[in-house]
Design a protein that fits this description.
394 residues; 34% helix; 10 helices; alpha/beta; homodimer; three-stranded mixed sheet; Creatine Amidinohydrolase; six-stranded mixed sheet
Chain lengths: 394, 394
């Protein structure tokens, strides 16, 4: 199921062509999602720096610590692997990167995503400007635009993610009951879904996520009852009560790709106020679905949804834009936001998740993941959206 | 149990004093671990930028997206909260940061940890240099040095983390059996330890981790059997077999602080080769424990351990240095590494984890978390270290 070598090669070829068009001799990419995208190598950024080097002829090299060398050799689609013994060590690791650049003919002018490895987890080191004597050209815009258009294989992986997120969410809903706690329910649902996924896909499964542990997961992120009014509230092992509004989230990383499924559920009969906000939320999401089509701009979608907030006097309950792209990152650009004028194109994959947040009453948000087609959208998530299906019996 | 306001105030006062000593009018900190350290506010870095501003008089302000405003007002120990509606929005969020800097009298010259919010998850925006017209002075060294010396309250939190990591590890070992899979065992152990921890500490518990989900966890990170020779192998739902060497990991985030417990276990009677490498690994760790004392340098510890590798001809099995500091980050500086000449001081907390990796045989590594005292070390982790205790019956 994973992305094949030919697709990785084509991605790198497009990058090399961009480098040539900018008269750059090569590029250094530090962001681990970019590295996964171009050469299929998954790693977590730590104090031990790592980077991908691509030169203008399309040759690739990985720069890694000694303890990642075999891992990089086996998994990264590269012609060169340069390593260094350890960080900080007596000689700075960046000397090995400088040698790799030399070896691959990457010298002034060069491109990069950021001017030097980020100072995370205690790492300190020179910028690329300091290391090479030349300030790199930021090529992030090209990379982000390339990643924004997904291939069929990528959309299939996001769909695979959605399937296991759906299972986790189904179990989450099934186990949610008055008196249970969010932690026991979400852990049980996530574990059962994960074990089923691992047995179904088999030992070839790789999560390769920089964000989530391997496996399927569903939970509440603390958006329970009155806390549900805070969009990104922190979990707190809350006990479920009748009348709680719940905002869920479910996903599963598969070979680096993610989907997003979120639902608003209610425990027991909803109040008329809750019902009203729920129905407005569904209508907001429908408005967005209709507005997403090739040729429209991302801002048009947010604008269409904002017109609904206007028309129904819902601005007191607004807290965020309609959604974002998704793929190797669980959030990525472009954004369904009034400030993003990117033209929507086939192959883009978005989450669609306008929300309503009422202090003391709860938060109301569904999120679905959709792929843009030639004339509209395909749903990659497919969990029921209606209030009746999402009411937990008491 | 969490860090109190007085301690946060004292941390900020020390930072403000540093700013004055450098003739800086203030500083902008983007790293979320720094923000948690100074004002107790936990958040995940997304495409919606956030930052802490501290001015030279010690006043603090948080810059956050609209949907984090209430969260920041309730939890961040700051006098100002500046928000922006959304990212990207029609006006760039950084305009709101510029206004906050103005309001707090932070202008040329300023300090920062990085020149602008990092371009993560699709975020794009100006550097601080572009925003303010002045290139910030990097103050990361001061911040890292301050964070390296832990208070009694911080060491108590790391010890609390170690307690729940110990429980998770105890269950992990108990449930590990021939024929079981790593995923079912680690999920079961982690869930049971988490539920016990949440019930024991009660609803005041906050994980506040940027790295781990709330709760206690123990697992294998794929370091099973022959794969155990790769230090940071990826998990793969492996079935346990007799003769497997297992390298574990356990921790629990508590109010932002982490500990690290790792053990080498063997399923069934170890081979003589396995026994030999295990005993060398324990001796390497003992060597490190003895070398850690105030006044010694971090490099001295690595050097003492390297002498043991020399003496016993173990270099073929070496892959990494002795350890690293730990606290709000699961890895942080200083490093027990030949290239780090930082003087060891009371209050520093280190992981001690020299390893031996033999292809085809397995990896051998214990990791313990220790706090430096006036004359040596205190153990914060306390799980059995001997081979007999770590042998899984068959």
């Amino acid at each position: 199921m994973k992305i094949g070598d030919a697709e990785h090669d084509a991605r790198c070829a497009a990058l090399a062509e961009h480098l040539r068009s900018r008269d750059l001799t090569g590029a250094v990419l530090f962001d681990n999602s970019y590295v996964l995208y171009y050469v299929g190598f998954a790693f977590i950024q730590t104090e031990r720096p790592a980077a991908l080097v691509v030169n203008a002829t399309g040759e690739r090299g990985m720069f890694v610590p000694r303890l990642e060398r075999e891992h990089a050799q086996a998994n990264a689609l590269v012609q060169h692997v340069a390593d260094y013994p350890e960080y900080p060590s007596e000689r700075h690791p960046m000397e090995a990167l400088a040698r790799l650049l030399e070896e691959m003919g990457v010298r002034d002018p060069i491109g990069s995503d950021v001017d030097g490895y980020p100072w995370v987890l205690g790492y300190r080191g020179p910028t690329l400007t300091e290391l090479t004597g030349t300030t790199p050209e930021r090529i992030t815009g090209f990379v982000e635009d390339q990643m924004a258009i997904k291939s069929e294989a990528e959309i299939a992986l996001i769909g695979e993610s959605a399937k296991w997120g759906n299972l986790a969410h189904m179990l989450l809903q099934r186990y949610t009951r008055v008196g249970a706690t969010e932690t026991e329910v979400s852990r049980r649902a996530s574990t059962e879904a994960t074990l089923a996924m691992l047995d179904a896909i088999g030992p070839i499964y790789r999560g390769q996520s920089m964000f989530f542990q391997d496996g399927a997961g569903a939970g509440y992120r603390g958006q329970i009852g009155r806390n549900a009014a805070i969009p990104h509230a922190l979990a707190n092992n809350i006990v479920f009560h009748q009348g709680d509004i719940l905002v869920t989230g479910a996903s599963a990383p598969v070979w680096g790709y993610n989907s997003e499924l979120e639902r608003t559920m209610v425990i027991g009969e909803p109040s008329s106020q809750q019902r009203e906000l729920f129905e407005h939320m569904v209508a907001l999401q429908d408005t967005a679905f209709e507005a997403i089509k090739p040729g429209a701009r991302c801002s048009d979608v947010d604008r269409a949804v904002r017109a609904y907030y206007d028309e129904h006097a819902l601005w007191d309950y607004w807290k965020h834009h309609v959604g974002h792209a998704i793929g190797i990152r669980y959030h990525e650009g472009p954004f369904l936001d009034i400030g993003d004028n990117t033209e929507i194109a086939p192959g883009m994959v978005f989450t669609v998740e306008p929300g309503l947040y009422a202090a003391g009453l709860g938060g109301f948000r569904h999120s679905d993941t959709v792929a843009v087609t030639d004339d509209g959208i395909d749903f990659l998530t497919y969990y029921p959206r209606d209030l009746e299906s999402l009411t937990i019996p008491v």
